[in-house]
């Protein structure tokens, strides 16, 4: 594809210098974090660098502890929780992920959540948001168990 590729492995606190970047030209840097310890992820994995002449670009690689959260939605009518979908909002109301979905039995898995408060907003506007609190734990997996979805008043 005509793109020059260098592969580097990040271990411990090593620093790398990419000396073949062209000045004043867009250089894409994609970091593969699949070798990180389980339960950790990079805050950001993709960068566009435009170095100036005889200069460098500092890139902070922030490794964050991440949690896998799973659970099951239930409702008074099984079709409401079966294959439900929606989005995840962070505690301040910002979009965290646009991909929330359940299987036929209402089970779900959320990957890469850091400690904090979240809300699941289902695509069906008749239902209330579901609040989730992710605590810092040693085990990178949390099972929320069974959560009953509630309809909004007047719907």
What does this structure look like?
This protein has one helix and eleven strands. The longest helix has 4 residues, at 78-81. It has a four-stranded antiparallel beta sheet, with no helix packed on it. The chain starts with 26 loop residues before the first strand and ends in a 7-residue tail after the last strand. The model has no long low-confidence stretch (mean pLDDT 84). The relative contact order is 0.18. It is mainly beta and 155 residues long. It has one helix at 78-81, and strands at 27-30, 40-42, 46-49, 63-65, 67-74, 85-90, 95-101, 107-113, 116-122, 130-134, 141-148. A hairpin with a 7-residue loop joins strand 9 (116-122) and strand 10.
Give a quick summary of the entry.
The chain is mainly β.
Mean pLDDT metric: 84
Question: Helix fraction?
Answer: under 10%
Give helix and strand order, one letter per element, not per position: EEEEEHEEEEEE
- Please state roughly what percent of the residues sit in beta strands, choosing from under 5%, 5-15%, 15-25%, 25-35%, 35-45% or over 45%: 35-45%
Q: Give the end-to-end Cα distance, rounded to a whole number of Å.
A: 54 Å
Q: Taking strands numbered 1, 2, ... along the chain, how are they ordered across the largest sheet?
A: 7-6-9-10
Class based on secondary structure composition and strand pairing: mainly beta
For the secondary structure, the number of strands is 11
Tell me the radius of gyration: 21 Å
Shape: elongated
Low-confidence stretches: none
Task: Supply the number of helical segments.
Answer: 1
Main beta-sheet strand count, sense and barrel state:
4 strands, antiparallel
């Amino acid at each position: 594809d005509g793109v020059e590729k260098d592969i580097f492995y990040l271990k411990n606190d090593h620093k790398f210098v990419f000396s073949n970047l062209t000045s004043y030209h867009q250089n894409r840097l994609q970091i593969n974090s699949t070798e990180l310890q389980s339960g950790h992820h990079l805050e950001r994995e993709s960068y566009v660098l435009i170095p100036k002449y005889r200069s460098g670009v500092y890139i902070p690689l922030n490794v964050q502890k991440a949690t896998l959260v799973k659970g099951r939605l239930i409702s008074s009518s099984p079709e409401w929780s079966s294959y439900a979908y929606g989005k995840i909002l962070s505690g301040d109301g910002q979009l965290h992920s646009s991909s929330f979905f359940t299987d036929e039995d209402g089970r779900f898995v959320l990957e890469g959540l850091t400690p904090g408060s979240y809300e699941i907003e289902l695509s069906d506007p008749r239902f209330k948001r579901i609040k989730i609190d992710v605590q810092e734990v040693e085990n990178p997996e949390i099972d929320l168990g069974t959560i009953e979805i509630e309809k909004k008043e007047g719907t």
